[in-house]
Structures are given as C-alpha cells and as structure tokens.
Amino acid sequence: MAEERITKREAIMRQLSLHSKIVQLEPHELVSTRANRLEGLTSSTSNTSFWKDFIEQAANFDEYLGLRWYRTDPLPLIQHACEQARETAILTDDMQKFKFVDWEFPVHSQVHLEVSPAPNQDVAKCIPGVITSSNCRDFQTIPNRIPRIQHFINKANCSKGGWSWERASSLYNTECSLFSSPSHSIDPRNVLQGKVGNCGFCSGFASVAAGWPNVIKHVFGENSQLSLAKNGAVSILLYPRGEPRYLLLDDYILCKNERDDDRVGRKTRSPSMHSLLEKDLWVQLLEKAFVKVQGSYASLDGYYKYNSLYRHPARAIQLLTGAPVAIEVHYSTSDTDTMYSILHSTQDKYAKVVHCRKRIDGLIPNHGYSLLWVGRGEEGKRWVCLRNPHGQASYKGYGFDGSLLCKKDEGVTLPKCFTVCFYTGRVVWQQEEGSECHPDFALCDFNDDNGIFFMDFSRFIECFPITTLVGPIKLAVSAAVTPVNADICTGDSSSDLVFEMHRGNLSCLSEILASTCH
To answer: Is CATH 3.90.70.10 what the domain over 314-516 is classified as, yes or no?
Structure first.
C-alpha cells in the first residue's frame, strides 16, 4: 500500500512538472549560519551544560537546516530532566533555573537588538531571533526593506519600545494556556499580523485554523500545556520534507509591556503575529517555531522571497500540515469559470491564500489574504469570503457584509461556517455550527471592519490574480485527533518544490487537483 501511495504521488508530481514552472525554494545561507548559533548561548541559568548534555543523549533525531528534528516527542525527556535537576539541586529558591532553555535558539530579556554586529563585535550579543548578519546582507540588496525591519527592531528593542523576551509561563497570574478555550481558540479571527510583513505566512495559518482546527491541536499534542506551565518547553510536530518530526522550543516569546492603568506591568502582545484572545499562546509559539527554522523574524518579512525557505505561504502550510501538493496559480478574468470550478471543488481539501494586486474599496495591494470560502448565494450568484490578516481594513465594495449572500424570504441556507449577526444583520464567520460566539469575537463581528468580508467572484478574480493552494489536508474539522494519513508523509524530495501554474494550463490543473482529492 505504501508503494502504491508513493507511486500515485510521484505520478501527480510528474504531471505537474510537465505543465508548470517549478520554483526551487532552498535556502542559500541558512544551513551555514546554524553552526554559529550554538556558540551564542548566553543564558544565565546554572544548568545550561546539563541541558545540552542531556539532550545529546537522545540520539533519535535528524539534522535538517542545522536543527535537530526528533522522531519521537522529546517532552517526556525534558520533563524527566527538570525533575532530576530539582531533586539534585542544592538551592531551590529560583525555579526558573529548572526550566528548559533552547540552546539552538538562545534569547533572553537582557540582550540589546541590532541590525547587524559591527566587524569586531561578538555575534552572540545580537539576538538571532530578530536578525542576523547573514540575512542582513539580503536586505542590503533591497533598500526599501531596511527601514521596515529597522522600525520593527526599534519597536522590539527593550530600551526604546518596551519589548522584551519573556517566558510565556510567567506572563499571567493564572496558569498559562496554549488554548484558553477548546471551542474558540483555534479560529481564523484569532490570528493577527503584527509589525512584520509576513502577510502570506499569517494568512496561511488562518486558513488552516478555519478549515482544519484539529491540525493545529495535533501540532502541539497532548502534553504541551503541562510542559509549558512547569518545564518551559514546547514540542511542535511539523513535516520537514514530508516526514513527521518534532521541533523543540523553550517558551520565551517577544512581548510588549502594556501601559494601561488597569494592566500595569502586564506583558502581552507580540510585535509580530499574535492572538486576538491574548491568553492564547499557540499563535506566538507556532510562529516562533518558524522563526527558529528561518533564523530570524526578518527572514519572514516579505511575500515573495524564494531564497527564504518557509516565507512563502505554500511552504509554511506544507511544513505545518505535511500536505504533498503546493501550487501557485496565476490567472486572468477570462479564466473566471475555470477558477471557480477549481476553488469550489477543493473547498474542504486545500488551504488557500490569495494575493491582492489592486488598491480599491479598502483592498491593500501586494498583500496576502486568507480565502475562507467559495460558493453560491441567492439566485446562484457566486461569492468568496476573504480575511485580511490584520483583522481590520476590510473590503468596502459591493456586498462586502454578506447582506447580498441571502435574503430571509428567499430561503437560502447559509453554509455551516456562517451565521447572521442578530444585532447588525451581517453574515459573520462562526467556527463551529451552533456554537456560542466568544465575547471578543462577537465584539469583533459587531465592528464592520473586522477583516472578514465577502466579494463577488468576478470582482475577486479581477483583484486577486494569484492563488496558492496547499493540500490535500487530511485531518477534517469533524475528525478525531489522529496521526496524519501516510498519504501525505512520503518524504519525497519533490515536496521541496512549489509549482507555478499559469493560465494556459488551468484545465490540466483542474484534473490534477481532482485526482488528489480522492
């Protein structure tokens, strides 16, 4: 059976390669700079060498991009290490000394951030989690990107903007949680883009949260909340080269010190991707995993940068879900019917991110949006539902609020992912059919500029001429949390490719996608 699945997958990839432009997405300098990171460990904890020696005893890992990807969940090992450290320690007054420190990605609150170290400056004094000298050279070739990254660094710098690295487990008086609400936390409205220009990346996560929330739960597993609260460690299940592997992190996240009178001293929001529900830490920790893989927040900035491995939303969604096919489709208004057929037929199988090219009625050009839904409303009219990862700046054109999607006297049944707001009459998103809306989401929906909007399909094709599809994703919304199907875990080298399909080959693309959905 395994050979048959691989053969089928190879046949699909071969078919794609015959009808598309293949874009190689391999990093240029990421691997060579990873070795330097181990020398940058500047943690003040007394048991750093203990962690390093202990983790090295677990030889069940692969090396990829200079990082260790564990074949089995390493959290039990970390928990045992913490217990051993507490039992053998003489001084127990500082429990922070007995929490996990990620020596592959060392960050702490005392380091001053800089764009790049001076020629004679120790690289270890530069936080690798923000920018490094290697990717700074990339930005020197694109001058208009330097001010944006410098702005982010100025905000993140502890002495200037009130940003610092803090342990997630120390942010709140109550016990911290990855998911504060089992029924509300994993929701596209909960993913907000921050100061980094990673719109496609954020939109990809929101698309997965919308259609496959159990994939997000599966990524963190069952032991993460206990580990996060007591041991300061998080393991995240990802799919490098299509194979399930665990990436180990500590729970340091980048936070802002709030100045509000009723929340003095509270550190909450991140300058990059964060949650609408502030106690949901899964968004920031999931992003941190990708920052660790990429090497810096700076390397996630920008939509189209093919030499940056996981910046493109297709590669990010593939790493998150293990999906075997990632296709970027380019089309024109003459392809409206074909594209509707493609997008509608892959509704529950492929996560989608679309790229805007027009500044009109509130749309932001050169910006990535989540494509949440494609379907028909009253009189068979075709519509799409989109989301701006900023959580605001919605489209304000014809039918944006969903009021034209159906009329009460027409008897049109809304898809289960929508409901009509009692107060405003707008069609709004709901993650689960019949579920009560979280108060923060209800307030978000009451605002007519909450980032989610509807658009006539013909206008959508005109304004969004590029769509990225990644799938098929196997864990459906109604499915139990189970290991991902082996169909998408073949580990074939072709998973390192994203296919660009242009309008001349769309009929072929429709057949290929249909074959992957069975």
So the answer is: yes
H-assigned helices in 145-238: 146-156, 158-161, 199-211, 213-220, 224-230
Confidence band, pLDDT 50/70/90 cuts, at residue 492 = very low
pTM, two decimals, is: 0.74
Interatomic CA distance for residues 264 and 342, integer angstroms: 51
Residue 93 carries which side chain, given as an amino acid letter? D
By the 8 A CB rule, do 328 and 466 touch? yes
Residues 6+ apart with CB under 8 A from 160: 154
Residue 184, pLDDT above cutoff 70: no
**494 phi and psi, to 5 degrees?**
-70, -10
For 476, other C-beta atoms within 10 Å of its C-beta total 13
CB 418 within 8 A of CB 402: yes
Q: Give the β-pairing of 325-330 and 497-501.
A: parallel
Share of the chain above pLDDT 90, in %: 10
Higher pLDDT, 252 or 338: 338
Q: Is residue 199 annotated as part of the catalytic site, yes or no? A: yes
Give CA–CA dist 347/469, Å, rounded. 10
Rounded mean pLDDT, 39-49: 40
Q: Is 388 a catalytic residue?
A: yes
CA distance 429 to 417: 6
Handedness of CA 308, 309, 314, 319 (dihedral sign): negative
Q: Which long-range contacts (CB under 8 A, 24 or more apart) does 417-423 make?
A: 417/210, 417/372, 417/373, 418/373, 418/385, 421/445, 421/446
Domain extent listing, the chain: 30-181+191-197+222-298, 314-516
Helix (H) or strand (E) holding 455: strand 452-456
The whole-number pLDDT of residue 190 equals 82
Q: Which of 82, 126, 136, 199 is catalytic?
A: 199
Q: How many Cβ atoms are within 10 Å of 416's Cβ, its own excluded?
A: 11
Write the DSSP string, 345-408.
HTTTT-EEEEEE----TT--TTEEEEEEEEEE-GGG-EEEEEE-TTS-----STTTTSTTT--G
The H or E element that residue 500 is part of is strand 497-501
Structure token digits, residue 429:
């998103």
| Percent of the chain clearing pLDDT 70 (strictly above) | 46
**CA–CA dist 291, 67 (Å, integer):** 12
Partnered with residue 467 across adjacent β-strands are 329, 354
Q: How far apart are CA 291 and CA 294, in angstroms?
A: 5
pLDDT 10s digits, 400-450:
776 666 655 454 455 666 665 544 556 665 655 445 554 444 445 545 567
Tokens of 223: 């032991």
Catalytic (active site) residue 176:
no
